[in-house]
Amino acid sequence: MSQLIVAPAAIPDRDGSLMNITPETAGWSYVGFQVIRLASGQSFQLETGQLEMCLVLLSGKMDVQTRTEQWRNIGQRMNVFERTPPYSVYVPNDDRFEVRALTVVELAVCSAPGRGNYPARLIAPEQVGVETRGYGNIERRIHNILPEQEPADSLLVVEVFTPNGHWSSYPPHKHDRDALPDESLLEETYYFRIQPETGFAMQRVYTDDRSLDETLIVKDGQAVLVPRGYHPVSAPPGYDCYYLNVMAGPTRTWKFHNDPEHAWIMKKPGE
């Protein structure tokens, strides 16, 4: 299996963790990503330390408490493929949180360096920007959970629904140069869910000079590391694809560069 693919554990550990990507394990500097699965009544807690965190409630219902805030009975979707925006919670660095599952819960813990500029807050579904991006078989649904227009120190968080037979993160684009205003340097993780779960998605990760050039078969519950390069995704016929993206870098802005060989695809037919 490619070193860019991170597989979940067969069963959660005693704390509920299925996957834990850190800057150290990924070999980069900014993005951390963890998947927690809790049974009803089970709790999970964590000190944020030097990191800000965005808790994305992928499915289920839970209570959340930080040092200064608490929210009860949040959550509405029981499966990401309901395609409704999630509840999320932003937690700053030098804080802590505890979640208590009211149902079976799947929770994503997204992290990056924090600077203490913003307090803990709930991000309700109605605060999530929903858009359709692309056209034809590159059309996909976007949920902007923590875009650059919303307050955070480092994190950018978005989820994408790619219908079967469609492509997303397409045309191929990259954001691996600290060269603003043209391009920003952002590390990125993709966390995949596939419906039906016996299926797969395909992702290519490649650079202009092909020093990195991998084509990946990604299964349900796996994550992909994108340290650099272009990174398009394809959902095969019969299998809908969901992924949660976490990005962070030295500057909190998403400025990408399309692969010049494929940029023409953004022109709709007849233009």
Strand content: over 45%
Give the count of helical stretches: 1
State the strand order across the main sheet: 1-22-19-24-14-13-12
Shape: globular
The ordered string of helix (H) and strand (E) elements is EEHEEEEEEEEEEEEEEEEEEEEEEE
Ends distance: 42 Å
Roughly how many Å is the radius of gyration?
A: 18 Å
**Biggest sheet overview:** 7 strands, antiparallel
Q: Stretches where pLDDT falls below 50 for ≥5 residues? A: none
Please describe what this structure looks like.
The protein is an all-beta fold and 271 residues long. Helix content is 1%, strand content 48%. It is built from one helix and 25 strands. A seven-stranded antiparallel beta sheet has the order 1-22-19-24-14-13-12, with no helix packed on it. A hairpin with a 6-residue loop joins β20 and β21 (213-219). The longest helix is centred in the N-terminal third of the chain and has 4 residues, at 23-26. GO terms for molecular function: 5-deoxy-D-glucuronate isomerase activity. InterPro entries: Deoxy-glucuronate_isom_IolB, KduI/IolB_isomerase, RmlC-like_jellyroll, RmlC_Cupin_sf. Pfam families: KduI. Its EC number is 5.3.1.30.
